[in-house]
Amino acid sequence: MEYLNNTPVASIIFIFTLITSIYAFNDNQLYGKFMFHPYTVSRGKKIYTFITSGLIHADWMHLIFNMFTFYFFAFKLETMIGSWQFGLLYFLGLVLSDIPTLVKHKDSFWYNSLGASGAISAVLFSYILFDPTTLLLVMFIPMPAVVFAILYLVYSWYMAKKGNDNIGHDAHFFGALTGLIFTVIAVPGIIPNFLHQIAAALGLGR
User: Fold this and answer.
1) CATH number of the domain that 158 lies in?
2) How confident is the model at residue 56, as a pLDDT?
3) Helix 83-105 with 117-130: angle, nearest 10 deg
4) Contact 69, 32 (CB under 8 A)
5) Phi, psi of 64 (to 5 degrees)
6) How far apart are CA 104 and CA 117, in angstroms?
């Protein structure tokens, strides 16, 4: 109840995504309705799948990884940025992260995508602007969030160019950019605060 009172938007998204994803594991028809299909969307149909594709996941590992990341950053971020701002950020993360995929695969009839990774990338990168020196555990290696952010962007861009696996690296990359740009616009002073924290961590501050 405390989560619902203090972070209502993140709580609703978290609960609804879990319920919808788990239900879809046992209902293939729901996958057909909710998945993002660039070929269809580019022809003006099933536009709603910009949103619904973020409510389903490919398997348990996909769901657990995304919800684990969401849990650790989304609730904190909503208290920092505000509820309606968080909701708008998440919505934009879902939609804008899929646009490059739409452009790239608009003529690929057999291509589909699903999962909340683009929106969660937006959440994570927004949070990093607030707290760039927090330590993240990546493959059991602790590293400052700002270092992870740089590596994540470079890796996602590189893998999106290669395009030889079944992961939506374009959505990861553009979701992250959405989080950065939205936060810079929505939160005055976030860049000086970001730079001050980096300088302090490097021992350059007064």
Assistant:
1) 1.20.1540.10
2) 94
3) 130
4) no
5) -60, -45
6) 18
Structure tokens, 179: 């989080």
In the predicted structure, residue 163 carries a pLDDT above the cut 90 = no
The alpha carbon torsion through 30, 106, 159, 157 (nearest 10 deg) reads -110
Per-residue DSSP letter, 53: G
Instruction: State in Å, rounded, how far the first CA of the chain is from the last one.
Output: 42
Q: Residue 98: which of 31, 15, 35, 23 has the closest Cα? A: 35
pLDDT in the model for residue 206: 54
Distance between CA atoms of residues 194 and 55, nearest Å: 32
Q: Report yes or no on 142 lying in a domain.
A: yes
pLDDT of 167:
77
Kindly report the number of other CB atoms within 10 A of residue 140's CB atom: 5
Helical packing angle, 117-130 and 145-162, nearest 10°: 150
Q: Tell me the C-alpha to C-alpha distance, in Å, between residue 83 and each of 10, 50, 61, 77.
A: 8, 21, 28, 9
Number of independent structural domains in the chain: 1
Q: Is the pLDDT at 107 greater than 60, yes or no?
A: yes
49: in domain: yes
Contact 17, 117 (CB under 8 A): no
Q: Domain of residue 142: give its range.
A: 2-201
Q: How far apart are CA 52 and CA 40, in angstroms?
A: 14
The string of pLDDT tens digits covering residues 125-137 is: 999 999 999 998 7
Considering the domain boundaries, does residue 206 fall inside one?
Answer: no
